[in-house]
């Protein structure tokens, strides 16, 4: 019951195209690529095989990109749904609120 496409890269074509394949070892690095509905790469991170990725952070990033697209605001560091965002036309107000 997945609501998104899932694929397997058995022949490592995608890993090679995304430049995460370690040719000499025959396996890929750990890569995360967030591509929006327009096909635009919004986020890319590549980790060594000894370090895993954070599912919570990946979900937060997807939520932040969706929020930005829908609201035209900027998500500050550690933004989570329901947190304050930055209105680019009133950014001074946001930064002043941090000092109080």
UniProtKB/TrEMBL annotation:
UniProt keyword list: Antioxidant, Oxidoreductase, Peroxidase
Catalytic EC class: oxidoreductase
Domain Alkyl hydroperoxide reductase subunit C/ Thiol specific antioxidant: 2-44
Name this polypeptide is given: thioredoxin-dependent peroxiredoxin
SUPFAM superfamilies (UniProt xref): Thioredoxin-like (SSF52833)
GO CC list: cytosol
Reactions performed catalytically: a hydroperoxide + [thioredoxin]-dithiol = an alcohol + [thioredoxin]-disulfide + H2O
Lineage: superkingdom: Eukaryota
Family: Belongs to the peroxiredoxin family. AhpC/Prx1 subfamily.
Keyword Repeat part of the UniProt annotation: no
Gene Ontology BP terms: cell redox homeostasis; cellular response to stress; hydrogen peroxide catabolic process; response to oxidative stress
Species assigned in the record: Myxobolus squamalis
A molecular-function term among this protein's GO annotations: thioredoxin peroxidase activity
Gene3D superfamilies: Glutaredoxin
Listed EC numbers: 1.11.1.24
Domain Peroxiredoxin C-terminal: 64-94
Lineage per the UniProt record: Eukaryota, Metazoa, Cnidaria, Myxozoa, Myxosporea
